[in-house]
Design goal:
CATH architecture: 3-Layer(aba) Sandwich
Number of strands: 13
Helix content: 40-55%
Domain NAD(P)-binding: 4-308
CATH superfamily: NAD(P)-binding Rossmann-like Domain
Family: Belongs to the NAD(P)-dependent epimerase/dehydratase family. dTDP-glucose dehydratase subfamily.
CATH topology: Rossmann fold
Strand order of the largest sheet: 3-2-1-4-5-6-11
Number of domains: 1
GO molecular function, one term: dTDP-glucose 4,6-dehydratase activity
Radius of gyration: 19 Å
Shape: globular
Order of helices and strands: EHEEHEHHEHEEHEEEHEEHEHHHH
Low-confidence stretches: none
Structural class: alpha/beta
Largest sheet: 7 strands, parallel
Bound molecules: nicotinamide-adenine-dinucleotide, thymidine-5'-diphosphate
Catalytic activity: dTDP-alpha-D-glucose = dTDP-4-dehydro-6-deoxy-alpha-D-glucose + H2O
Cofactor: NAD(+)
Number of helices: 12
Amino acid sequence: MKIIVTGGAGFIGGNFVHYMVNKYPEDMIINLDLLTYAGNLETLKPVENAPNYKFVKGDIADRAFIFKLFEEEKPDVVINFAAESHVDRSITDPESFVRTNVMGTTTLLDACRTYGIKRYHQVSTDEVYGDLPLDRPDLFFTEETPLHTSSPYSSSKASADLFVLAYHRTYGLPVTVSRCSNNYGPYHFPEKLIPLIISRALNDEELPVYGKGENVRDWLYVTDHCKAIDLVVRKGKVGEVYNIGGHNERTNLEVVKTILKALNKPESLIKFVTDRPGHDRRYAIDPTKIETELGWKPEYTFDTGIVKTIEWYLNNKEWWEHIISGEYTKYFENMYGERL
Ligand code: NAD
Ligand code: TYD
């Protein structure tokens, strides 16, 4: 099979490319990524010379480019990770989220419709369901929970989901959608909470915690997410949505304190800062459907996954120090400059 993975130079897409290239040597994995600030080819170093891997630089919202690529490659499967993914950035620049997350998705869907496809999979998020109150631990997001978004980011992702499902209903396109909770693990860009706290704590810098740190996120180790997507693409029912999560809820303050303890750093580094506007209170996934229908089970709990993650950041300082210093943006030039 020929599989186009979009956004494969980002955090989850990068981990997914590693997983797929190693697990399915008979499949061809084409990583299509625009290399925005969040795309980092240094993440792909472990697979860049694999015979079943290829990188293509391009924009999922560039219709002419996407149609040409599909014409040349005739992919069997498209898995769309490419997105603007940071809520805080969506608050200052909503339009780039509409362009990539909505128009990029419809462009890919149109190409799939034109050239034919065995499966289009949309990597979505639990944030499309909005948030849950902090005082109702009995409530969880199921696939039936109404979409009720809070941020420009989640609104763009919900919109994309609706287009994906509409292309199934209207044109019969074979699609699936997965909605996962917050991920963490290797190659996570240090603007997001967990890698930000690890990298700043290691440098003895102040750790910004929004509001009182009482917001709750449901954390999933990234390879558990990758395995779930692989399963949905291969065994999931066309036209269906699958929630992905492992019941690992923590308040932000608990997360930060766990990291500080593991690194032997003082809690005095914590600095409570002005809250994010519209800050979602709690996310919590009910994963019953993917567990019962597809037999998925996460391998890691938060306690085992966070230890593995911290170890990775300690052993791969060069990767995140390059990001913080801006060095990583030169990788494409060094690697591809003479070949283009
Ligand atoms: P990321 O920001 O780390 O990576 C996004 C990647 O997409 C980058 O490599 C970037 O260069 C690429 N990209 C951006 N715009 C593009 C465009 N127009 N054309 C081609 N490539 C483009 O994001 P992530 O955290 O890895 O998230 C991946 C997907 O998973 C997103 O769709 C996100 O909504 C979803 N998701 C993320 C989480 C999470 O916790 N990070 C949880 C659930 C779902
Ligand atoms: P983030 O990693 O941005 O993911 P999301 O907003 O998509 O869940 O943030 C996770 C939680 O951590 C969220 O409640 C906001 C909070 N947060 C902070 O308290 N400080 C920070 O510096 C960041 C980036 C996030």
